[in-house]
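This protein record is not my work; I was only asked to verify it. Would you go through it and say whether the fold makes sense for this chain? Here is the record exactly as it was handed to me.
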Amino acid sequence: GQCKLQHAGIQCEYIFSEQVNAFYQAYEYWHARKKPWVTAKIAISADGKIAGAKSQPLTITQEECCTFTHQQRLNHSVLLTTATTVLNDNPQFNVRLDNAVIKKPLWILDRQLSLSSNSRIMHTAEHVTLCHADNLAVSEPQSGIDYVGLIQKANRLDLQQLFSLMGAQGIHDCWVEAGGRLLQ
């Protein structure tokens, strides 16, 4: 871009900006690899826990971290979670900042197609993409949900295939909020 401008007789000067570089980081990654830049939220207690007994939700972070989480949700193209997280926490997975509520596209890893239309996220997400094992047929598809069959490797959905699919759809970045199994 700069050379074309200079050839046209326009004076150009490059000024480094950390904020601008950070803004374009996900796009540059996607442009080079055709996969999204993936960021995972991990909140860990002092004794190394990310949830309470029997995977019950556990408040670990301060209010500032909650605000940071909602800002990250806002700034990312899509949110990614698992059916286990939805079933355990019944989260909203939207953005709640400054008295505004903003719906976001949500991708859910649901290998066994265990979620129901009663889950709160079916109403709080802008759109839901449900990723399941490709050997399972969707017997009763729910309207407003995209179903994507993914290859399984060692009883887990293939994340490389998932991220390639996201990249092919032009998704530049993905914010992950899930339990320890996916994060591992």
